[in-house]
Design goal:
about 500 residues; alpha+beta; 9-stranded mixed β-sheet; 19 helices; about 40% helix; globular
Length: about 500
């Protein structure tokens, strides 16, 4: 919102700006800080010092001293970093099992900063760390731009540590059901081998890299991740993905892009590993076993009335076909609109296929388990949306192969933390609705009241302020009820 001129004209301390927030005009103290290698200094907000009220400047607190190297910072961002560390500290513990403590702290800190300040650049990480309470929880992390650049390269060169971390994750989640999928990411660098034209990239005129992720349906967070060149297809990367991380157990839910005899034979060769793979409607396997005929056993799944057919080809191959009558009717209408004259044989075969989705598995599963697992694939898409749209990690900004590997590993850690935050916000009760008798009739969660971005933005208003020489106390805008509610619900008040 534009600040009215009459507000701007009110006398106030020098070196300040005015920001509007929820009907109030706050006066923010600013200073500048030299950044090595930059011609112009960087502007730094030192905090709110006053407010314009009824045409006058009202001081809230004394002006802070200019932040310079070697001097302490007595106000630090707290809310976002506190909740990230709340859900992420077990991740730091796991990192320390395979990385030395210095590197583990650095990976963890950068990952948290990428969650708290989406699209943050390496040049800004040190300032963000120094002015956050994370620097009090895990002090002494070297995060200058040059240090980070060297760290990304060296960690990527020593890839075995990253690999061992991911192998440990594979074992930890071995018994669950995981969705496999990949996503493309802009990467137009000429200095790394991951930058290649994907099929989509040729259309948009931009090169990509490919990221393959596995996502655990129970914990709602990613398990494994690996970076590939943009022109590598899913069907060709599965062998490498499973082999490198020694995936030996669980159920892999894939899409048609992974479908090949080589891939299904690979999974069948691993005793404890199972798969659910959708088949193309033209699949010879479906035709051979007449999987479009007699789909007549009724089943209710998530309040949907479906019919299904199950066929055991052998003890390691099972076929399932499900027909959704609503989708079948919609597809039939589309078909009829496209064909003026109907061939009876073609129409008869097409009608059998309307509304049908079929699967191949290597285990005798309950039909509902197969259908529900595949229907949950949308969850990994929401995770990729978190990755690209909420955390703003949709473009790779480093250049060497080694740096790309480490940077994407850190992004993967950020997504784990963000997904855990999302789960926390879903589970945390925030507001209660009461009837006339003042009895609680329903309770809503944080996520039902605010989006992820809103929640993180509101949490950013919660600061830690140093009182005296050592003691820190939490502080947030007075009379802002929803921020106080969030702080209390998430137990951030100190």
């Amino acid at each position: 919102m534009a600040i009215p001129q009459e507000i701007k004209d009110v006398p106030r301390p020098k070196g300040t700006i005015i920001k509007y927030s929820f009907g109030r005009y706050f006066v923010i103290k600013r200073t500048s800080k030299r950044v090595p290698g930059k011609k112009t200094p960087r502007t730094v907000d030192l905090g709110t010092i006053g407010e314009i009220v009824d045409g006058q400047y009202v001081e809230i607190r004394k002006e802070p001293k200019k932040v310079t190297e070697g001097k302490s910072i007595n106000i630090k961002s707290y809310g976002p970093f506190a909740v990230c560390h709340m859900v992420g500290k077990s991740l730091l513990k796991d990192l320390k099992l395979v990385f030395n403590e210095t590197d583990a702290n650095k990976l963890y800190a950068i990952a948290i900063l990428r969650v708290c300040e989406p699209d943050i650049r390496n040049r800004d990480i040190k300032l963000a760390y120094d002015t956050s309470y994370l620097s009090e929880v895990i002090p002494g992390i070297a995060l200058s731009e040059n240090t980070i650049s060297t760290f990304l390269r060296d960690t990527g060169m020593e890839y075995l540590s990253i690999q061992n971390f991911l192998k440990a994750r594979a074992k930890k989640f071995a018994s669950g059901t995981q969705i496999l999928d990949s996503t493309l990411k802009d990467n137009n660098s000429d200095t790394n081998s991951f930058s290649e034209f994907s099929r989509k990239g040729r259309v948009k005129g931009s090169k990509d890299l490919a990221l393959m992720y596995s996502y655990d349906l129970e914990s709602k967070e990613p398990v494994l991740m690996k970076t590939y060149s943009g022109n590598v297809l899913d069907v060709r990367s599965l062998n490498d993905f499973i082999g490198e991380f020694e995936v030996q157990k669980g159920i892999l839910v894939m899409d048609k892009g992974f479908g090949s005899k080589a891939n299904t034979d690979l999974i069948r060769s691993i005793k404890g590993l199972r798969f659910i793979l959708p088949l193309k409607r033209s699949s010879s396997l479906l035709m051979k076993h007449k999987m479009y005929d007699d789909i007549c056993t009724s089943i209710t799944i998530d309040d949907m009335e479906l019919t299904y057919k199950k066929e055991a080809v052998d003890d390691r191959t099972f076929l399932y076909s499900f027909r959704d009558p609503i989708i079948a009717a919609e597809e039939e209408v589309v078909y009829l609109k496209k064909h003026d004259a109907l061939d009876p044989d073609d129409y008869g075969q097409a009608k059998k296929e309307f509304g049908v989705i079929s699967f191949e598995t290597n285990d005798d599963m309950e039909p509902s388990q197969v259908y529900e697992a595949y229907a949950s694939r949308w969850e990994i898409e929401t995770m990729f949306k978190m990755f690209k749209e909420i955390l703003d990690l949709d473009t790779e900004n480093v250049h060497s192969d080694y740096s790309v590997i480490t940077s994407e590993f850190i992004n993967y850690l950020s997504v784990i933390i963000a997904q855990r935050l999302k789960n926390l916000f879903i589970k945390t009760p925030l507001k209660e609705k009461k009837n006339k008798k003042k009895e609680v009739v329903s309770t809503t969660s944080v996520s039902e009241n605010y989006t992820f971005k809103q929640t993180m933005r509101y949490l950013s208003k919660i600061k830690m302020v140093r009182v005296g020489n050592k003691k820190w106390v939490s502080n947030y805008p007075a009379n802002v009820k929803y921020i106080e509610e969030l702080a209390n619900a998430l137990k951030l008040v100190v």
